[in-house]
Amino acid sequence: MLLVDLVRERFAAALNQMGLDGTSLSQRVTAVRDTQFGDYQANLAMSLTKQLGIQDPMQIAQDIVQRVDLSGLCEPAEIAPRGFINLKLKNSTISKALNEVAQSNRLAVHPVAKPRTYVVDYSSPNVAKPMHVGHIRSTVIGDAIAKILKFLGHKVITDNHLGDWGTQFGMIIYGYKHFLDPAAFAADPVPELSRLYRVVHQLIDWQSTEKELPKTKLAVEKAEEKLAKVQAEFGAVAATDKKAKRSIEDAQKELKNHQEKLKKLEDTTEARKQQPDLSSACDKHPDLETRVLQETAKLHAGDAENKALWDQFLPLCLESIHHIYDRLDIQFDMELGESYFHNRLGPLVQRLLDNGMAKISEGAVCVFLNGFEVPMLIRKQDGAYLYATTDLATIEYRVETFKPDAILYVVDHRQGDHFSKLFATAKQIGYDQLELNHVSFGTVLGKDGKPYKTRSGSVVGLEPLLDEAIERAFQVVESLPIPTEEKREVAQTVGLGAIKYADLVHNRTSDYVFDLEKMVRLDGHTSAYIQYSYARTCSILRNAGISMSEPIAPEVDFVLDHSAERTLALMLLKFEEVLLHVTNDYMPNLLADYLYDVSKSYSSFFEQCPVIKAETEALKQSRLALCQLTGRTIKQGLELLGINVVDRM
Ligand code: ARG
């Protein structure tokens, strides 16, 4: 049991005696950040004055303290002004708990009492286009969440829901038929397919620019007129009249938005001029978006030529994506792409029509949702199915096959609307006992604050990025006193760890700036720092002739007289609690932060407490055991984040 729960249990008993709801009230015993006055604080008395009809919180606190039996667990409780109760764990309590951790091969993390079955849908790239830095977030966050849930004893099925059936394939099929460079394709097909994707994407973008440009010019003119009008009307009084001022500001903002959009479109038009060949291709393939949709529709309808192309392209695309997963050491239990569900879509829609859950509206099939203005479209007028239809069929399949308690979708926040509608639809059609959760995440930004791009402006491919991280890590580890032959391997571990850690350490819901130089630093909030701390624990154990994996003794008596020892010990005891917190809201950053805190506590312990030269043998043993537990906690923790360690760096 968690230490904090042991303390809570004692409080619950006392509070029950007082006729109160001990179980829920005892949750107000929490760990404190600043341990100057104790390790925990019970914040109870002030909120109970009314209920108990006692005005003075000090009196209530005294009453609680008299009743609560903390023997063998805490030092006598102390009451602070306003009835806060400060609690300090006995060193013997900490030592005993630590010993339990030291003896356990899972660091005394108990499997949860009620294991659940989870399907975790993550990574899930659209395979016909090159994977980019954005995909790494889903991959890394999803992998960490799955590993942590598994470690806690849940049943976890990881599923890479590949986008292998959508418009992107229509794009490369169209590209293949019209823009192929056969020699390039013969030499190395995947880069050629990527090029075709980019060409078609570019042409579609130019065509939409052409369409948007006159509209946007008009919008700018209108916004200018509006601003002039508002200024004429309110300009004189704007200094004193708030409403007038706001009207002018609003009109200015509107104009600025249209101008910015116009500027972007004009820049695109300008850039197009630099590519006359492509530009003339653009004119020769008008309305390309529709043509691409037609190719996609033909594929879905079983057209022999398109199906053969798809059969040829898919394995190539998969191979290149798997190469990246191999480098990142990511494996999935299943990889059922969208194509796998194609045959389920028709019957699913028909069933929903038959049982009245879906309705035909203007030729399309919709599910009308409570609380949503717009219904969920599941079949278009032209008979085409949608992303949402496939997702519904996938839920159906997952429920049939795995009977999960929860399905987690680790997907970009921009798909938030899709998922809220999808989940509402799923509930309405009968999946109301299932936890459906969009574990969303923010955007990876460049230093300019815009979505991360290379200098040439295209989105960065993943492989060169991994290479660069490893190269930068190599520059950092170059100066370390390790054998040259090990340096490459260390750089590999540090570089890949850096990319993963940077992704995990930020609260997933926020955007973050991708800065490789910062990520590999040994002295920053980085995995390199944590890996370095691990290597230090290894080094000290090596010097003492002790292995990392075997407990130092069948029973370790931890001496915790120095505050740095005690702080480190308490930090190590938090591991289980941190893992449980991660799974509350699927926030792996809590574990990433925790491992950094462990490393910092270790560093200050190491500076202040001699280990090999400790004053007594007993103290030396205790400190060695602390080093070992630190190392094991870091190793296990990083492993759950998908990050490796090295013994020497
Ligand atoms: N392939 C989609 C994309 O790249 C993500 C799929 C997420 N998973 C899902 N079941 N919808 O945008």
Quick summary of this structure?
This protein has 24 helices and 13 strands.
Bound molecules: arginine
Q: What is the CATH class of the largest domain?
A: Alpha Beta
Sheet with most strands: strand arrangement? 1-2-4-3
Percent in helix? 55-70%
Give the class from helix and strand content and strand pairing: alpha/beta
Using the coordinates shown, work out and report the CATH topology of the largest domain.
Rossmann fold
Treating each run of at least 4 consecutive H or I residues as one helix, how many helices? 24
Looking at the structure, what is the overall shape?
globular
Residue-averaged pLDDT = 94
Distance between the termini: 36 Å
Number of beta strands: 13
Residues in β-strands, percent: 5-15%
- Please identify, by name, the CATH architecture of the largest domain: 3-Layer(aba) Sandwich
Can you summarize the main beta sheet? 4 strands, antiparallel
How many structural domains? 4
Radius of gyration: 30 Å
Uncertain ranges = none
CATH H-level superfamily of the largest domain: HUPs
